[in-house]
Amino acid sequence: EAQVTQNPRYLITVTGKKLTVTCSQNMNHEYMSWYRQDPGLGLRQIYYSMNVEVTDKGDVPEGYKVSRKEKRNFPLILESPSPNQTSLYFCASSHRQGGEQYFGPGTRLTVT
Amino acid sequence: AQKVTQAQTEISVVEKEDVTLDCVYETRDTTYYLFWYKQPPSGELVFLIRRNSFDEQNEISGRYSWNFQKSTSSFNFTITASQVVDSAVYFCALRNNMGDDKIIFGKGTRLHILP
C-alpha cells in the first residue's frame, strides 16, 4: 500500500531534550516536506527536500533540522525543543514538483 | 511573496444546502499550482484537486466543483447538496514551479454541516 509513515504518532518531552521524528514514504517520491499545524494558523512549511541531499528552508525553519540521505526517509530533528514547538507535525511527499502531496498521519508533539 | 487567503474561518450550513469556500492567492510566478485538501475530524489530510495556472477550466467531481479565475486570483470550492460527512477543515494551497518547492497553505475553513 502506498503510504507515508511517521513515528512516533504522539510524543511528550521536556525542554532541551533532543528528539527525531521519522518520516518514510514507499512511493519513490523525490519531493518531501515537513509542516506544522497550529490552531488558526493552518499548515506552515518547515523544510522541504527536492531530492537526496537537497534540502531547503520553508517558512518556519527556526529550531528544526532535516536530512535526506535516502530517497525514502526525511527525518525532522529538534535539537533543543522548546514549548513553542508544541504542535501537530505532518510529513508529505509528492512525485513531481507541482504535484499533489501525500501526507503522513501526523505526529502530535508536546514540549513541557 | 506568495500568499493564500481563506477569509472564512468557519461556516455552518444545514444539510442539503450548497456552500462555497473561498480561496484567494497572490503570486508573482507565471507557473504555479493550486490545491484543495480536506482534513476530516479524524485528522488526516486528503487531497481533493490540483489545478495548474494554465488551466482555467472549471472542474466538477460529483457534488464538488471548483472555479478557478486568474483574473481575480481565486480558486473557490463549492459543495452542492452538502452532507454531514462533508464536515471538515478545508485547506487551499499554492505551489510554485520556479526552482524551489515552497508551498503555502491558507489558514483553512472549518465547515460544519448540521443535520
Account of the 3D structure:
The complex is a heterodimer of chains A (112) and B (115). Chain A has 112 residues and is an all-beta fold. Chain A has strands at 4-7, 10-13, 19-25, 31-38, 42-51, 54-57, 65-66, 76-78, 87-94, 102-103, 107-111. In chain A, the strands form 2 sheets. In chain A, strands 2, 4, 5, 6, 9, 10 and 11 form a 7-stranded mixed beta sheet that branches. A 4-stranded antiparallel beta sheet of chain A has the order 1-3-8-7, with no helix packed on it. In chain A, β4 (31-38) and β5 (42-51) form a beta hairpin. The radius of gyration of chain A is 13 Å and the shape is globular. Chain B is mostly beta strands. Chain B has no helices and 12 strands. Chain B has strands at residues 3-5, 10-14, 19-21, 24-26, 32-39, 46-52, 59-61, 64-69, 74-79, 88-96, 103-105, 109-114. In chain B, strands 2, 5, 6, 10, 11 and 12 form a 6-stranded mixed beta sheet that branches. Chain B has a 4-stranded antiparallel beta sheet with strand order 3-9-8-7, with no helix packed on it. The model of chain B has no long low-confidence stretch (mean pLDDT 95).
Notable characteristics:
heterodimer; A: 112 residues; mainly beta; seven-stranded mixed beta sheet; four-stranded antiparallel beta sheet; 0% helix; B: 115 residues; six-stranded mixed beta sheet; 12 strands; globular
Secondary structure layout:
The complex is a heterodimer of chains A (112) and B (115).
Chain A: E1 4-7, E2 10-13, E3 19-25, E4 31-38, E5 42-51, E6 54-57, E7 65-66, E8 76-78, E9 87-94, E10 102-103, E11 107-111
Parallel strand pairs in A: 2-11
Antiparallel strand pairs in A: 1-3, 3-8, 4-5, 4-9, 5-6, 7-8, 9-10, 9-11
Chain B: E1 3-5, E2 10-14, E3 19-21, E4 24-26, E5 32-39, E6 46-52, E7 59-61, E8 64-69, E9 74-79, E10 88-96, E11 103-105, E12 109-114
Parallel strand pairs in B: 2-12
Antiparallel strand pairs in B: 1-4, 3-9, 5-6, 5-10, 7-8, 8-9, 10-11, 10-12
